[in-house]
Amino acid sequence: MKQVVNNQKGLISFILMVQITLAFGMMLFGFIFQAEWAKNFMVGVGMIKPMHTQVDYYTYIKGIEYLMCVYYFMTFPVFYMFLSKKKKK
């Protein structure tokens, strides 16, 4: 029984570390994205498209919101299991 609990704690710790790493990476990417040279490079390479209208902007924002929702729905159950295990002890 203790081995199962230790495996679950290890899994939850790993998932939380992945979440922290991803959050830090997204923050770092956001800072780099604000730099003009990085934006020009990404447009030139074709990683992003320049937005000229509000429709382009809203489409871009909607895609980011969908990615955030998928990330939340995948990680919240694990975080909830982590919280509920602590309350039972």
Task: Spell out the blueprint of helices and strands.
Elements lengths: L1 H33 L1 H10 L8 H35 L1
Helix pairs in contact: 1-3
Explain this structure.
- By secondary structure, this protein is an all-alpha fold.
- It has one domain.
- The protein is built from three helices and no strands.
- The chain has helices at 2-34, 36-45, 54-88.
- Helix 1 runs antiparallel to helix 3.
- The longest helix is centred in the C-terminal third of the chain and has 35 residues, at 54-88.
- The chain is elongated.
- The model has no long low-confidence stretch (mean pLDDT 76).
The best one-word shape is elongated
Helix content: over 70%
Mean pLDDT: 76
The separation of the N and C termini measures 15 Å
Count of strand segments: 0
Structural class estimated from helices and strands: mainly alpha
Number of domains: 1
What percentage of amino acids are in beta strands?
under 5%
Radius of gyration: 19 Å
Low-confidence runs: none
Short description:
This protein has 89 residues and is mostly helical. It is 88% helix and 0% strand. The radius of gyration is 19 Å and the shape is elongated.
